[in-house]
Protein 1
Amino acid sequence: MIYGYVRVSTDKQSTENQRFEIENYSKAKGFRIERWVDETISGTTNVSDRQLGRLLKQIRKGDTLVTTELSRLGRNLMQVMSFLHQCMERDIIVLTVKERYELGNNINSKILAFAFSLSAEIERNLISQRTREALARKKAEGTKLGRPKGKKTMQVRLSGKENIIRKMINEKCSMNEIAEKFGVNRQTLRDFLRDTFPDWRKYRYIK
């Protein structure tokens, strides 16, 4: 059995790109994916609590698992190595699209998997460290960190609703009616009008 495994961290991301890459890879290799496993979950979550963990219990000797890259399997060295170790011990082959790895139960595969996982974890730690240092520097310089109050509410709840809002205003709907429809307060609506419509001033006096 040949399995395709795709994972994204949040529901705002799509697994379609990963599927596309795996399908193209499998066609080039002359095989097809017989079963797909998709999940939306952080790679830091323990493998046993993910669909990947359930798949590991079902997959059998001689089966193949295809994923876009080793980082889809986990977000730290021990997770990835533990998973690969179990696969190699059971003669399960792991193929990665981007790195072009073919990992089986041999010493070269184990060395390669270890080296990649270690370098990936080091790079993530360095990025995290640089981010913390940059934020600390900005804070020390007096830069106000974080999102402006109310900005997310406007962007998430009102963005893309410009035509509807203008139509309601033209129909003489009150500010309260419009704000209630979109689940925001009057001030948020006023700020949105000011930031969105060049002629926003003519809406300032809507009751």
Protein 2
Amino acid sequence: MKLYDYYRSSASYRVRIALHLKGLSYDAVPISLIDGEHQGDDYRHTNPNQRVPSLENEHGPLGQSLAIIEYLNEIHPDPKLLPSDPWQKAQCRSLAMLIACDIHPLNNLQVLNYLNTELGVNQNQKMVWYHHWIERGFSAFEQLLMQRTTPTDFCCGDQPTLADLCLIPQIYNARRFNFDLDPFPLINDIDRTCQLLPAFQLAHPDHPIKE
């Protein structure tokens, strides 16, 4: 498999965690979002949406991180990244989508660049925007964690799931942009637990070696 990847992309980060949790080898193909490689003709052929990540195998390329992760979970079911119980599975997907659909799209690099270049938003205003959506999303996420009937070390159950794979990269980005995480103790607890696992360490953007 090939993973077209940008090391700081939180969507790519999610997929790297999944690959390492599954113990799957892959060839990393770096695509620089800073240098505009994602907008080049070569990559547009792989992913017409010009986003990362893309996973390519014998079937062809596949975009969208959640689709990639669920595909990996289908073809390599151990360890499971979604609970077996239908209600718990839906709750796990709900937490994951709170990050992937409600927070991340408003704060990704293309949106932040658009605010600067097209709307004339200054750096301070851009940070106000960024912090607003993180605070709103993390407040909801923390409350949902508080409502769990059986608190655990992870978002859903006793092992990492799709929800954790979405949460941890968003925490990394929040710290990069100096967002105060102190008001979110349960989120911080999950982050500390996940950071002890080799799969999360190997997938981390600051890890020097990518497969």
Protein 3
Amino acid sequence: MTTADYVALALFVLLWAAHNWIISSARFFNRTSLTLAMNERRREWIYNSLRRDLKMIDTQILSGLQNGTGFFASTSIFAIGSCFALLGATDKVNAFFSDLPFIINGGRTAFEIKVAGLACLFGYAFFKFGWAYRLFNYCTILFGSLPMLADAELDPVRAERAAERVIRMNVIAARNFNAGLRAIFLSIGYLGWFLSPYVFIVTTVFIIIVLIRRQFFSDARLAIMDIDVP
């Protein structure tokens, strides 16, 4: 492990933390992030459901959110297993990298540290996805406690409180899901470290730029904003 390796790793962690902070609690170039804008659409969805007696559509949406979270949790487990399998083939992989040009090979110990870091990254993603899966399950239960249309009209305050509970749980579940998804995306940049710390810096910055663009300058963000609506 060289000084460049430690600098690249520190930059990776710093950019990851800064990205999380920007999209969750700040504005970027006076723009709201896609994540925060989507939270408002979640609120609209739950309040619209109060005006429906038949909520099969809503339960299907919740089921889709939970199933998608379960898929990524399973993927993270497979990725962790692959990392352990890679540790078992350290000598072969290390010999392969030694023969490649333009690659800084730090030796067996450095390679094992990098693989262990990658396993920790996928482990973090798994815990986020696993917790999000459980929270979406809680959200489904809270959604089932929403009053029917007639009861909501009789006691709107109670109905709004029930809706707010569902909204808060849904937003927290989505926050954990997004955190796991960011870890998966950043793992692509992390792979650059196996080539050299300089490639690691470039791939990390590139992934962060892509994620920032998707959050603040993408067509997906424009699609859910209340601007330029015909």
Protein 4
Amino acid sequence: MVSAPGAAAGALAGGALAVTAWHIGPAATWLPGLRTAYFPGLDGRGAPGRVALTFDDGPDPLSTPHFLRALEALRVRATFFVLGSRLERAPELGRRMVAAGHEVAVHGWEHDRPWLPRPGRDAAELARAAAAVQRITGRRPLWYRPPYGILTGGRWAAARRTGLRPVLWSAWGRDWTASATPDGVVAEAAARLGPGGTLLLHDSDAYAAPDSWRVTLAALPHLVAYCRGLGLEVGRLGDHGHPGSGVPYGFPGRAG
């Protein structure tokens, strides 16, 4: 017979395991093969004649204006996933993005890794970031991409509560690394980017190798030319015919 203290300890251990599974389990969607096969919405898959161009980690007064000018020259509108704390320090950049026809989405309040369950804090910070975007830009954000692409149970539930659709990416340029080069960014993106894909780039080096944004900026015209050479229109995620977050049964925040 199991003693009362033993049963209580077992129940506590079981509860802790359940919380951990709820928190960490959805983070498996970081794996690109899993997203591509099972969660096309979360993978950023949209209309086959388009590519969604997205930027993370800004706004950055040092680098973001260069991207805004480059996109204007290329006649491309993009989606910027901004951090609420950085947007509040540079609100004029958020307003410039919207004035230029770009889309402003939510990357969180701070750029942190969610190793421990903290659903209350996740909900409060995501709501704060979304409110900052709406207040500063005058537009309600639609999309949420968590820092590092780690979509935990708490953050998925927070996105649902805030009315945001989680989306990661179909391809990236690995443009945040110290070894990145413009040619390498283009090659890395082209290896996975195709019709209906969503491309992840960075308009800031705040959480990347110093000056890595300059590599991204140099690669940008070549990436746009590559997509156009495939007959793909480059634009915002909101124009992508995106089906939503692709949340499966049993995952936090599922539809239905």
